[in-house]
Design goal:
- By secondary structure, the chain is α+β, with helices and mostly antiparallel strands.
- It has 2 domains: 2-78, Roll (Ubiquitin-like (UB roll)), CATH 3.10.20.30; 87-154, [2Fe-2S]-binding domain (DNA polymerase, domain 1, Orthogonal Bundle), CATH 1.10.150.120.
- 32% of the residues lie in helices and 17% in strands.
- The chain contains 5 helices and 5 strands.
- It has a 5-stranded mixed beta sheet, with helices on one face.
- A hairpin with a 2-residue loop joins strand 1 and strand 2.
- The radius of gyration is 15 Å and the shape is globular.
- 41% of the residues are buried.
Amino acid sequence: MARIVRLKVNGRARSDAIPDNRLLVDYLRESLRLTGTKMGCDGGECGACTVLVDGEPQLSCLTLAASVDGAEIETVEGLAVNGRLNALQRAFHEKLGSQCGFCTPGMIMSAEGLLRRKSAPDEADIRAALSGNICRCTGYVKIIEAVDAAAAALRGQPA
């Protein structure tokens, strides 16, 4: 069965017929070609598929697309404005927060959710927000530094 699902994706209203069993990650990647959202583990353990659903981080590999009817979905592609990286994306670039880059979209979306809730997170807050995201390349130091730098930039302070 399929149903008509109405939602906003990266600020754009959509209305699509989506099969009841289609995962949000597959809808985003295959139907909308938003390939920043990654399928890493196929079981909700790595965080690479994290998107924001109504502003809150959610694993799209465990979410049926039909269950987000009426919601606002944000992916890493939606953070840039007019081709300019947002503060968090820029900080990941400047602070070398990504290695291979596979986990980076999920890390950024989890961190984006945190920074929307808390403008001055400490290291414990950042670690907690990213605890559901696995990076197989680093020790997380540069990732945490990037989130901290973005938070400072958003507050208008030097990193």
